Amino acid sequence: MIQFIVQRALWGLLVVMSVVTLVFFLIFVAGDPAVTILGPQARAEQIADFKAKKGLDQPVTTQFLSYLGVLPCVRKDSPKYERDDGSRGFCGVLQGDLGESYSHHESVADVIGHRLPRTLLLAALAILFELIIGLSAGIIAALRRNRWTDTSIMFATFVGISLPTYVTGPIALLLFAFLLGWFPFGGYGVDALDHVYHALLPSLILAVAGAATYARVMRGELIETMRHDHVRTAKAKGMPASRVIIRHAIRNALLPVVTLIGLSLPFLVGGAIITEKIFAWPGLGLLTIESIHSLDAPVIMAVVLMFGVAVQVGNLLADIAVAALDPRIRLSE
Amino acid sequence: MRSTPKTERLAIRAVGVMVVLAAVALLLGWIVSSFPKAPIGPRYVGAGNETPRAGGTFVFAAGSNIHTLDPHFAYDTLSTAACRLLYDGLLDYDYDGEMIPSLAAKLPVVSDDGRIFRFELRDGIKFHNGREITAEDISWSMHRLLSERIGSPGYPFFKSIEGAGAYHAGEADHIDGIVVVDDKTVEFRLDEADQTFLNALAMPFAYPIPREHVEPLEQAEGVDAVGRHPIGAGPFVFARWERGVQVEFRRFEDYWAPAARPDRMVFLENISGDVASARFRNGDLDVIYRPSKVSRLFLRSADAWAPYRTEVPSPSVFALGLNCELPPFDNVHVRRAVAFALDRSKMERLNPGEVLAASQVLPPMLAPYDPALPTRQRFDLDQAKEEMRLAGFPNGIEEPVTVWVRGEGDVRLAQLFQQELKAIGIEIELKQVTFATYLRETGKPRVAQAAFTGWHQDFPDPSNFMDILFHSRSIHPQNSENRSFYRNPRLDDILDRARPETDREKRLALYAEANAILADDAPWAFLFYPVDMFAWQPYVKGFRAHPVWLNEYRHVWLDLPRKRVSQSIYGEAESP
């Protein structure tokens, strides 16, 4: 088991490293952040000054290794640039330093610190809606198998999976915000309760595809499980039907759903990019778009790093959970 | 043929499918028809308080980024709007555009030669950190503004202060012309009399900031840091700023002019016109300016919104600039022909309510604008052809004229006028460049034959249009402000006499004369004045469009709690 986890973790690390390297060089190729940040009217000396401060005047490989924290710091405006004894310090990822945002004039950690809780709020509400709507729809469909309730639920899930957020989002905004006035028209509000109120509609939209997937998986698994011997035995020994379903069938059918949740976590954060854009929800997704527009390299890198790590950790946890829950997988390894 | 059981079943099935399809169609029809209509009036109204009431959160938005909250760098409209909440200066403007004292107790005492301005400070004026403002603060802030070190774009407006140039160049460590007489008195001495100095003092550039806050901050985090951690003397205190998302302000309880104000102001950034319009109509925004085109048409036509909207010309002018040094526009008759050839009413028809045809350089709210000015800046095809004949081009000009354009808006304008210029025998070719290139190249003599251009006032005085845009002093080898390279010694003379003139009547008469010369000589073919629309929620009280400040919300109060109204009280919905 431990060997299995270590192996998976190493693979994950390799994938994250490759993605980070690729994106770093892609940003380098994409354009000159100094020009984008300072604007077209910036004077040559301003640009040179900016580049010197941020270490952009160094060879790109030096920049990259310094970003990782393998080579000494190249950002002259970093407090870690010079140590007290005069030698050069390190200011890279390995030292836990993600740098300073070019456009926000704040440390990247602070910028993400502002944005992450909002995306987590959206993701948490979305998961909640996915589970409530998806699981109940799936269970109802399974229990009413091949009747019209089942057919309509399965049709609805089909529609739900097929419709992308950039279709459902604007429709929901138009209908529930603009025409009916039940929800605010995007944005994230001005205080805590207001934030939750503003999050309801985007998280519902974010939950549509997930809920539909869970409903289909739950239905399939539950139908499958109901055929299993242990369920038949439970029924045969005279257990009440509701108890059989809840204690024996649903519990077992939940297994693949748990895996799905683990796998979907990073995508809820990543998939929120479009939703956050549509609903003008200033979370990580919107931050990603903004920083790509302004070529705010430290923020782009940090977001890529975070998404990468999140996907890998999510996968790893899902693998471990499944392995722990299902001895057959453990044994076959 | 007798139907077999099989075909019977098929028929029944087909009928069944059709019935289901019909039911689905009916259901869809019912859903669509029972869709709620778009709100045709305000969604919320006020509680009905008669007297101003403090409290609530006032939310407004703009389409792009706020650059800085440091008044010494606030040159764009959004930074200015935000700084208007945080800071106060010696002088301000009232809602008629007249200058009024703010931190100053009264308008300054001016010496007979018009060179020395003495200000008395008001009692009880405090920075947000609680410290009383003294004359020393005014002086120190001006020194910061005019230092080469911080490089503020405001420096040119204050060059006329005695010794400002030497200080800016680093040749002196003090500006001789700024004299702190005592704690409450400060004096400004100018090199030469200049009435516009007071206008300059009313710009955000001259707003005082506290030295004990700014100096350590600049030392620790650099000059930019002041724009991120502002402390001023205005009606609202800075709370927090998430760049690109929103700035929040809280009411300043020790403000020298107490009034019932909202507890909090939230200024949202980067909200596009469409989104802002939808949010406004949904009641999420308390005020909107420059709504999207569709929403603007709707707000103009919806009766329920009539008491809560206003349209005012913006203090700016758009024009087709003609280079007076390059043929064919070195010939005044060709310039007049162009000015006569353009049918400006077309723009008004295409953008209803958004533009007002321009006949002169001064916008309508700025004296001495003259609606009855006998001008060549109006559409008259016969006159245009006559001018072409006088110019010696009765059959038109063979070589096409290159017109520089800044973006899509200019291209559409150019297409609008292409036919009309063709009618008098001038073919145009468009040269579309980035805004930076446009600024650089059109500022050089003998480069651009013609260019779409415009001006937005820095302060409400005719000199801010005429001196900058048409005085020969504004022609330089690079970065000319006079981009039509118009030289007229007579105009220069009038402008030089008007600028220092202290007698208001005489001064306006001189500018009226200059105004007529410019309309006549047509270095610019004036096109239009943009018109801004503002709309506000019924529970927002005390809002008026300000003639100088674009987003002026320091005097609003909120009639809360707001009440939701049923849209049916506005009658049957009309499609916008």
List the main descriptive attributes of the protein structure presented here.
heterodimer, A: mainly alpha, 0% strand, B: alpha+beta, 8-stranded mixed beta sheet, 4-stranded mixed beta sheet, 16 helices, 31% helix, 18% strand
Concise account of the structure shown:
The complex is a heterodimer of chains A (333) and B (576). Chain A has 333 residues and is mostly helical.
Structural description of this entry:
The complex is a heterodimer of chains A (333) and B (576). Chain A has 333 residues and is mostly helical. Chain A contains 13 helices and no strands. Chain A has helices at residues 2-30, 33-38, 44-54, 60-68, 108-143, 148-162, 165-179, 192-226, 229-236, 241-278, 284-293, 297-325, 327-332. Chain A is globular. Chain B is α+β, with helices and mostly antiparallel strands. Chain B contains 16 helices and 22 strands. Chain B has helices at 5-33, 77-86, 135-146, 164-168, 196-201, 211-221, 273-282, 293-301, 332-341, 345-350, 381-390, 408-423, 435-442, 463-470, 489-498, 504-521; strands spanning 44-45, 57-61, 91-93, 99-101, 109-110, 116-120, 178-182, 185-189, 236-242, 246-251, 264-268, 287-289, 309-313, 316-322, 355-357, 401-405, 428-432, 450-456, 524-536, 540-541, 557-558, 563-564. In chain B, strands 12, 13, 14, 15, 16, 17, 18 and 19 form an 8-stranded mixed sheet that branches. Chain B starts with a helix and ends in a 12-residue tail after the last strand. The mean pLDDT of chain B is 91. The chains are: A mainly alpha (333), B alpha+beta (576).
